[in-house]
Amino acid sequence: MNEVYKSINEKSNGKYGGLRFPYVTFDGGNAQVTVVCKKADRAFVDGNISELKAMLNDVCGFHTSITLKIKDDPLTAAALRIAVVRFTEKFNYVSSMSHGITAESEPSFRLNIKMHAAMHELAKNDYIPRLKEFLQNNYVEDVSLNVEIVDYESGGSAQALEQGTKKEYVITSVQPYIGNFKPDKVRAISAVTANEYNVAVCGILAMQTEFTSKGGRPYERFLIYDGDMSLQCRFMPNGSKSIVNAAELTNKPVCLLGNVEYDGVRNEASMSVKEISLCTADGLTPPAVKPEPKSYGIIFPQNYEVLVQSSMFDGNTEVPQSLKGDFVVFDFETTGLSVIHDRPTELGAVKISDGKLKESFSTLIDPRRGIPPEVMEKTGITNEMVKGQPLFEDILPDFYKFTYGCALIGHNISFDFPFLLRGGNRSGWAFGNRRTFDTMGMAPAAIHGIQRLSLDSVLENLGLSNDNAHRALSDAAATAKAFIAMKKILAKK
Fold it and tell me: Average pLDDT, stretch 67-80?
């Protein structure tokens, strides 16, 4: 505990043992002392403010007036993790292990940190004792600290697929699904780096989505992933089995045979798939799918009608069967186009239930890096706006709850979904088993003769508008309206 806590409790014979005094700030010559207490103790604090001020003045020797900032918000695991990650980033030599920090609240508060042995040697006499002091000074709840030393070279308890480390998979069993592809070894996604024909690659299949070309020809898109890497894929059914409706492929390891095209400008590969096989690959396992969280932690949904006062699209026609159930339309704003190198700055989402917009979910996100000027100009999201906002991994449990049991929709979802998939897999919230829809892929089938497939063009052709383009919630709401409209059009065809 800090010296202020110790001195005040010595003078008061432990009267204020249930309070914490983490820090003081000075503003305009006044000292503002933060006092942390449990909500049940708030009345006690309010009734002893004069005595507390006198003791603080005596202990600290302030030559100025004192105000108290009382914090009695209930502690949550998400809030604990956010605070510890921000504390950790002050120590450059351990900041890289922020993704290995997790927090639990049941049965009691517990902070878990994974670090390799060399980092632990540096941290044990500096970062770790200072973290323990931080926890004692900032929280009235008891927070236990569990530091796990892992060996990343041999796998250890933190074995994971990391970007670029896996080049090949050994296939231990294979079941052809389309074609008769039976490989014994195939490349990992990170080894696909050039334009090539008849490439064999392995990964976990997700994001099965129907598309229609501008010429009216149906095809399908999906991606495969392993660790941080993902590969965009397209498949022309030609009377063969569908990928979209194949639940047996969803979030399962597969081997693909096809042709790879590599975009050197975007540093991104894509694959035209010819043959697909279910497989078992040594070292490739889908992340576990968690049950729905019991409650929201930091981001709470809002009633859509309350949030958006104008232009609500709910339709007056009968709801077709294809709109029955729950869907979530989501959109990211990001620092750039690369899922590996860039980070989300905003997430907006709208829930559709039986053809009507019901709830919204929206938050800015601290990307922990600067936003390029051209991106700030386009989105209106600045570095100052995201500073101090929740981290991506901290809002994912709430978004997982918001989307639980729902299909996911996006406009050009192949951009947004990999960010969600990568972040979710890293944080233990797997989204790879979700059914997906893409309004960009629906547009040619629903809107005769459409030439441009941007969201603005689709909305214009449907007689709809987007009041605040390039902000995540507005784009998600506009996409939701387009999805409902096109589903109704397609139901009549």
Answer: 86
Q: Which residues contact 219 (CB under 8 A, 6 or more apart)?
A: 211, 212, 213, 234, 235, 236, 237
Does the active-site annotation cover 470? yes
Q: Where are the alpha helices (DSSP H) in 351-468?
A: 373-379, 383-386, 392-403, 413-427, 439-446, 455-462
How far apart are alpha carbons 410 and 221 in whole angstroms? 13
**Which amino acid appears at position 405 of this protein?**
G
Peptide bond into 107 cis (omega under 30): yes
Helix or strand (DSSP H, E) at 81: helix 77-88
To the nearest 5 percent, what fractions of the chain are helix, strand and coil? 30, 30, 40
Give 326: exposed, middle or buried? Use CB within 10 Å, 0-12, 13-18, 19+.
middle
Cα(82)–Cα(98) distance, integer angstroms = 10
273 and 216 in contact (C-beta within 8 Å)? no
352 in Cβ contact with 326 (< 8 Å): yes
| Beta-ladder partners of 220 | 210, 235
Question: CA 72, CA 79: separation in Å to the nearest integer?
Answer: 13
The alpha carbons of the chain give a radius of gyration, in whole angstroms, of: 26
Instruction: Record the tokens describing residue 346, joined without a space.
Output: 């905003």
Token pair, residue 315, equals: 């339709």
Q: How many CB atoms neighbour CB 470 within 10 A? A: 17
Instruction: Note the pLDDT tens digit of each residue in 218-235.
Output: 999 999 998 778 999 999
Comparing CA positions, the residue from 386, 394, 348, 347 lying closest to residue 367 is 386
Q: Are 243 and 222 in contact (CB under 8 A)?
A: yes
Place of tokens 């929201």: 296
Amino acid (one-letter) located at 42: R
| Helix count and strand count (H, E) for the chain | 14, 19
Distance (Å) of CA 166 to CA 39, 173, 188, 426:
50, 19, 6, 17
Confidence of residue 1 (pLDDT cuts 50, 70, 90): low
Q: How many CB atoms lie within 10 A of CB 408?
A: 22
The two beta strands, 407-410 and 302-303, are unpaired
pLDDT of residue 156: 35
Return the higher-pLDDT residue of 80 and 349: 349
